[in-house]
Design goal:
Order of helices and strands: EEHEEHEEEEEEEHEEEHEEEE
Number of strands: 18
Strand content: over 45%
Largest sheet: 18 strands, mixed
Oligomer: single chain
Structural class: alpha+beta
Number of helices: 4
CATH class of the largest domain: Alpha Beta
Shape: globular
Distance between the termini: 7 Å
Radius of gyration: 17 Å
Number of domains: 2
Helix content: 10-25%
CATH architecture of the largest domain: Roll
CATH superfamily of the largest domain: Diaminopimelate Epimerase, Chain A, domain 1
Length: 258
């Protein structure tokens, strides 16, 4: 029986199993292993698993797996990857890394990590909400009484709605209450509500800007903490200089039998 060294991270409540895979020893195509490591009863537990790897053109590469072993971009996970890369001495305060949706820039300032997200072109009004791609696919709907909203029930229906298939979509629900933005999310790949989503808060900020006009940087309250999204609107359907800003915390490290 072999052992695997890992780091457990969380970014505003999104938690991840993280592995330094610069030597390339992790079996990336072993979906059952990824699912087991993310399982909260039979493994370490996490919304996803992240591999930190060398890259020929960038400081590092982040490979992200959802808990079901599908791959995607992860905003909160990218902040955790930057924190771990800095902890391991791979980068300084500024870095460039590669992820599922392409290259990103990152800066560490005062315990907060700033990730430059992809430019967003087009926000489509669809199914009583807004649909856009912030590195991964997101649906955003404004609702009332978010605290009691059926995120699991409605979110799952949206995630598998024929309008978004075959890829499906994440589903975020947001409310502006007493001048503050709140959001909750059903994440595909986790197939559950999670406490936060970096690409999700980015989608919420831009969708709300389209719907109501929103000052940059926007503060978004997730169930796991507060994230900020800064952006520059070039025209009605184009956003650039999009930055998602928030903390990343190493919770513990250890070894697991595999």
């Amino acid at each position: 029986m072999n052992t695997l060294h890992f780091y457990k991270y969380q970014g505003t409540g999104n938690d991840f199993v993280m592995i330094d895979n610069r030597e390339g020893k992790f079996p990336q195509h072993d979906e059952q292993l990824i699912q087991r490591l993310c399982h909260r009863k039979f493994g370490v537990g996490g919304d996803g698993l992240i591999l930190l790897q060398d890259h020929e053109q960038y400081d590092f590469e982040m490979i992200y797996y959802n808990a079901d072993a599908t791959q995607s971009m992860c905003g909160n996970g990218s902040r955790c990857a930057v924190h771990l890369a800095h902890h391991l001495g791979m980068i300084g305060k500024h870095s460039q890394f590669y992820a599922e949706d392409g290259p990103h820039e990152a800066t560490i300032e005062d315990e907060l990590i700033h990730i430059r997200m992809v430019d967003v072109v087009g926000i489509e009004e669809k199914e009583e909400g807004y649909f856009l791609n912030t590195g991964t696919r997101h649906y955003v709907r404004l609702v009332e009484d978010l605290a009691d909203f059926d995120v699991m029930g409605v979110g799952k229906k949206i995630r598998y709605h024929e309008s978004f298939m075959p890829q499906g979509t994440n589903a975020s629900f947001t409310e502006i209450k007493e001048g503050e933005v709140h959001m909750r999310i059903y994440e595909k790949g986790v197939e559950n509500e999670t406490l936060s989503s970096g690409t999700g808060v980015t989608a919420v900020a831009l969708a709300l800007d389209k719907a109501k006009g929103l000052n940059s940087p926007a503060k978004i309250n997730t169930q796991g903490g507060v994230l900020q999204v800064a952006f520059r609107k070039v025209r009605e359907d184009f956003y650039t200089d999009v930055y998602m800003i928030g903390p990343a915390v190493m919770v513990f490290e250890g070894t697991v039998f595999v």
